[in-house]
Amino acid sequence: MKRITAILFCVILMFTATACGAKNKSKINIVTTIFPVYDWVREIAGDNENVEITMLINSGADLHSFQPTTDDIINLTTCDVFVYVGGESDEWAKDALKEKQNDDMVIINLMDALEDGKKEEEIKEGMESEEEGEEGDDEPEYDEHIWLSLKNAKLLCGAICDGLSKADKKNADSYRKNADAYIEKLAGLDSEYEQAVSAAKNKTLVFGDRFPFRYLTDDYGIDYYAAFAGCSAESEASFKTVIFLSGKLDSLQLKYIMKTEGSMNDIASSVIENSKSKNAGILTLDSMQSVTAEQVKDGATYLSICKKNLEVLKKALN
Length: 318
Fold this sequence. Notes:
alpha/beta
């Protein structure tokens, strides 16, 4: 769990006055954490020149290992609207918010907005289990990869729209119009996913990697096996896990094994080498946890990546 130190908070206080003076206070300053959240806000804000949107995690750093800079903390604590996932990887943000300089800040915690829709982390058969937490810690651990469900995205964009409208009432109608149009696009792509999975020959995926796609697979009734849970810090699978996944590849007669973007092929390749056929291919699903500012500049959007993932799924499930 990442904690912002007392020393860093002292630095924040030293620079707050300068930061506040530097901000364009004629605009609504919106700070987001990861790319999907940033892109949703961008779609809902539309061409409104009254907003300035910042994506904090934009250098390719993984959500689970991100370390905020002093500038990141200053941006967060002085903004007008802060939108974040609110999972375990965002503990640093929750700590920073205790020192916020803007008492009128609108804070949108998307895990809270999802309410009963969030799911506890799941350890499936054959998966490497994490070490148990501290004794007496009975708090449930929720899977924070909520953005990978198009159904969730529709609900969460509604929550973002409500938050932006609260912070900028005079443009509330514009935000609602943009949100409604975007939610309609999300619904259309959701239907494409449903049709594709319904027509698929196979309904199971094998991941030689972490598995952050539970919300996606649950949406469409896809089963899965994986080396690690979505938030696992592990990168080396035991021989037992490799053999288990190889057995699933064989028994299900799968043509492909899956991995997430940015990870090496080591585990997936080992699973293939230990399978009977030894000729399965490797496909990559993008979890959107480490999209860079450069990719955004080149035109990456939440919908475009979801569409690419759909094409990958079609190939994997047939």
